[in-house]
Amino acid sequence: MPEFDPARTAVVNVHWQHEVVSPQGAFGPYFAEQVIRHRVASYAARVVAATRSRNGLVVYTQTVHRPGYPDLIANTPLFAMVSEHQAFLGGTPQAQIIDELAPEPEDVVVHQVRLSGFFGTELDTVLRGKGMETLLFTGVATNLAVTDTVFDAINLGYRPVIVSDACTAATDQAHQASLETLGLLCPVVSTEDVVRQLSG
Q1: How far is CA 150 from CA 16, 77, 85, 154, in A?
Q2: Residue 94 three-state SS
Q3: What b-and-e string marks burial along 54-71, b requiring 16 or more CB atoms within 10 Å of the CB?
Q4: Which of 94, 123, 157, 187 has the greatest count of CB atoms below 10 A from its CB?
């Protein structure tokens, strides 16, 4: 695992919302079983705790839509499902981040309405303003929002690191295929690797 400066490192937690990772969420039927079976949230929570312990930045990307969905362009089947299921409405319990990964007051929560956490958001501005260089990624789904956000991070000049057991997809095969692709572009490491390095 490459060395990194904890003070210039952020963990970017992608889509840890009830709509995505809880069984009752609109997208829960796709992802919740994988999250639960592999204990993915618990690994992500360890990465978050380790980052906080070394004064790194903790960031969450959270999909939030306005009532009536004026900010939704339903140009993919997944985006069309958002309005069909009345999902990700701001202020609703289902749109909230799960308790196991609940943000603390000093954390940053970025609201997004597209696939990447960077597109149309203040994420890049926040990261640059805080002097972040290395981005640790956790979240769901590895082959969708995580990958798209990582690609944007690379194009913007950041050094992404994928925490493999703190991410998942709808199937083990989709998750593994995404890790193989991402591994061509950036380090793919375990939670243990990250915690060990952050603990010094």
Answers
A1: 16, 22, 27, 6
A2: helix
A3: eebbbbbbbbbbeeebee
A4: 123
Two tokens, residue 17? 């919302």
Distance CA 181, CA 117 (A): 19
Whether the CB-CB separation of 87 and 19 falls below 8 Å is answered with yes
Threshold 0.85, pTM exceeds = yes
Distance, CA of 73 to CA of 82 (rounded, Å): 10
Cβ–Cβ under 8 Å, residues 103 and 60: yes
CB neighbourhood size of 200 (10 A): 7
Fold type of domain 6-198: Rossmann fold (3.40.50)
- How crowded is the C-beta side of 115, counted as CA atoms within 13 Å? 19
Distance of CA 143 to the CA centre of its chain: 11
Q: Minimal CA–CA distance to 194: which of 124, 133, 123, 137?
A: 137
Length of the chain: 200
pLDDT digits (tens, 9 = 90+) for 50-73: 999 999 999 999 999 999 999 999
Q: Give the count of beta carbons closer than 10 Å to the beta carbon of residue 186.
A: 19
